[in-house]
Amino acid sequence: MKKNILKKLVTGIMVTTLAAGVLTGCAKKAESDSNANASNQEASDEKATDASTDNANTEDAKNTDLEEVTTIYAATGGAPKPFTFVDDSNELTGHNIDLIKAVFERLPQYKLEIEVTDFPSIFAGLDSDRYQIGVNNFAMNEERKEKYLFSDPIFANEYVAIFAKDSDKAESVESWEDLAGLKTISQAGINITTALENYNTANPDNAIQIEYSEADLVLQIQDVEAGKYDFVLMDKPMFEYYQKEFNFNVVGAEISNDVSQDLLPQPFSYLLISKGNEQLVEDINKALKEVIQDGKSKEINENWFGSDYSPSYN
Amino acid sequence: MSKLFDGKLVFTQIPTLLEYLPITIELTLVALIIGWIIGLLLAMIKIKRIPVLSQLAALFVSIVRGTPVIVQLYLTYFGIPIALKYFNYYNGTSYNVNTVPPILFAIIALGLNQSAFDSETIRAAIQSVDKGQVEAAKALGMTGKQILRRVLLPQAVTVALPSLGNSLIALIKGTSLAFTCSVVEMTARGKIIAGNNYRYFEVYCSLAIIYWLLTIIIEWVFKYIEKKMSVPEDVPIIKEDQLQERRLNL
């Protein structure tokens, strides 16, 4: 008797959990769909509401009539803010996200699904073509170029080197060369580390000491504050967000864009696209150009950073 | 200097994190059940020394126990699509894995991981049952299934419970890696929240509290079950000398 009850219990648990799994799976999908719709609407609300609703209608019509809409899966790490993050109302947003949505609004032949995943999983997912696009303010380097395709630049990056406030080095730093011999901390795989590595490859005799860490940026800045590292390199707009929240006892030394241009062939951020999607890259680039030229990109930039970091296409 | 550590936030954001507790529990429970079932199978294969299968089982257990869970998650979530891509390429098919919900991959990876650990526990527990009892059961004419169900399992479960509890605790913490498979469970939610407010340290403090409490609950539950399952202490045990006496009395 007892055993029967146990048996029933176990099977009951199994069935319910499996059912729950299926249900939550579906629910999640539905949710993300509605999210996408909502944010599309939001984005379009900013500009010419009539035109965009028309757009949406034709999009729907195309969806049903031609059934040639390909779903494109994009992945993001959900950090760093303000490039990509999930806001208080649990919606994925940020500069990169707004931009990629603006791009795909112009590409009715694709349906964009953005998934949040662990940062290293973006690369693994692109390798396996589970995701077609990586959107995480990615910089370009040779290694990445071999493995992935790149869109045209989506963002013109500016870096700041962050020093402790009492550091005498802070004022003398004007170029990357001034950072040589100093000790820094950085996370593997992000655009800043790429920049540092590129510099070191180009200047093996004048290298910057990089210590790799998965530590959060807050801790990294604290380590600089405490003198454990000489400096930490950050995207300028991000640093401003951090200072607003934490008000660290540090100063940011801006590194002139000319110099960083020498160092990084392209001090830009890109969308990463998995190999074999050449057509997608072409379509994205076309739409991206439109987004930048008609001022939508500028609008997004000013919304997030207060100034325009759009790459110029002259 | 503004607040470096926002102590209040550690507690105020716990409810937001708990919204994702169901996902964590779902991952845990389903992986647990898969782990027990496959673990029992593997254990039986090993005990019965079925040729080929038992070697394969040993290889599987060795690989799974010898690699980190996070690597296994990567291998299932990204390895299977790559394998499928090659399969499609060589066979001209066009199967697409993207339609499979990510949580399934996490469940498979965690479940298989769990099965490898549990199989050893279950095997040891079954083998701890005195052979004489199996022989006695055979002598009474029980079938293999009956022996397993009536003699081996009830005793083995008692022996295995503490270890199974341990591995369940390991599993619930293992689910915190499911974000690698794009499954947003509690830890992932925490990382996402911190991505918004930059308060990573605080979120990890909150998560530590939640996981700790969960573990305490599991410990309690297992202690309770152990108590229920164990042979009651007030059952009179016939000691050797009493036995002698009885024999003499006969």
TrEMBL record, chain B:
It is a multi-pass membrane protein. InterPro entries: AA_ABC_transptr_permease_3TM, ArtM/GltK/GlnP/TcyL/YhdX-like, MetI-like, MetI-like_sf. GO terms for cellular component: ATP-binding cassette (ABC) transporter complex. CDD domains: TM_PBP2. Pfam families: BPD_transp_1. Residues 21-222 form the ABC transmembrane type-1 domain. The chain crosses the membrane at residues 20-44, 56-75, 95-113, 201-222. It is found in: Cell membrane. One of its GO terms (biological process) is amino acid transport. PROSITE patterns: ABC_TM1. Belongs to the binding-protein-dependent transport system permease family. This is Amino acid ABC transporter permease. It comes from Candidatus Galacturonatibacter soehngenii.
